[in-house]
Amino acid sequence: MTELSHDSTRRELATGQGVLRYHEAGEGPPLLMLHGSGPGVTGWRNYRDNLAAFAPHFRCLVLEFPGFGVSDPADGHPLATAGDAVVRFLDGLGLQRVDVIGNSMGGIVGTRFALDHPDRVRRLVTIGGIGRNLYSPGPGEGIRLLTEFTDNPTRDGLVRWLRSMVYDQNLVTDELVEERWAQATDPDTLASARLMYGSKAFAARAAAAAASGEPPYWALLHRLRPKTLLTWGRDDRVSPVDMSILPMRTIPDGELHVFPDCGHWVMIEQKAAWESAVLAFLTREDATKDAA
């Protein structure tokens, strides 16, 4: 297999609303990989170490959402522009049906896409993030630290947020901090983050949602059609594991796998176990339901 480096996998797709950048590796059925949010995040940083496991089986497509400093920016709230980017991306590549892996925010985007386009997702994998807090305070500790950093971006604030993401604190290295800091403090990326996690925007969005009368996505999970695997870190401080109860119970064909000694970044912190579970799920034979 060709070396799966940043440059060897990097691609661009021109669309009517700007250039979408992505990473591509492997051949086979298309697997769309959607990243999470937070300071300095990219799709490449979320999934770079997982590509070697999935590329022998799938055409892996790691999409970079607008507003995070890699793809061209788009006007609007990052969650809304991410959903639009998925449609533009798949249409631009001529892909009608895909498997989807979504980390945190990417899991919400993938779930919403599957709800809106039920015939376009064969199987869905989420990594934390979806559902709602049932026993734990909401928003979780990691989200509160993210808001603090977004309002007042300091290096110490970034470190506190990064430490909330993982169970193994040794993963928060100086290299990781520097990598994240450089992109998180880019003016355009920071402005986009404030649309999502700034305290004023956070409060305004909650008020608007309450006033709209529209049901939140998690209240519609009983309509989700694809087979779904929920993966979660038992020690997640961003989206605590009790959030998994509602989607686990209401998604018609949903499964839940909880990983011990693991925080929010399951695909990084429990890499081998997570890859094994996800590959087994995605490659499992179930011709009758998958063909329906």
Outline:
The protein is of the alpha/beta class and 292 residues long. The protein contains 14 helices and eight strands. The chain has helices at 6-9, 43-47, 51-54, 78-93, 105-116, 141-151, 155-165, 174-184, 187-197, 199-212, 245-250, 266-269, 271-283, 287-291, and strands at residues 10-15, 18-25, 30-34, 59-63, 98-103, 121-127, 227-233, 254-259.
Helicity level: 40-55%
Q: CATH superfamily membership of the domain at 6-136 and 215-285, which one?
A: Alpha/Beta hydrolase fold, catalytic domain
- Tally of strands: 8
Structural class, from secondary structure content?
alpha/beta
Report how far apart the termini are: 34 Å
Number of helices, where a helix is a run of at least 4 consecutive DSSP H or I residues: 14
The main β sheet shows up as: 8 strands, mixed
User: Reading side by side through the largest sheet, how are the strands ordered?
Assistant: 1-2-4-3-5-6-7-8
The assembly state of the depicted protein chains is single chain
**Helix and strand pattern:** HEEEHHEHEHEHHHHHEHEHHH
Strand-residue proportion: 15-25%
Reported by name, the CATH topology of the domain at 6-136 and 215-285 is: Rossmann fold
Average pLDDT confidence is 93
- Outline: globular
Radius of gyration from the CA trace?
18 Å
**Unreliable stretches covering 5 or more consecutive residues:** none
State the CATH class of the domain at 6-136 and 215-285: Alpha Beta
The CATH architecture of the domain at 6-136 and 215-285 can be named as 3-Layer(aba) Sandwich
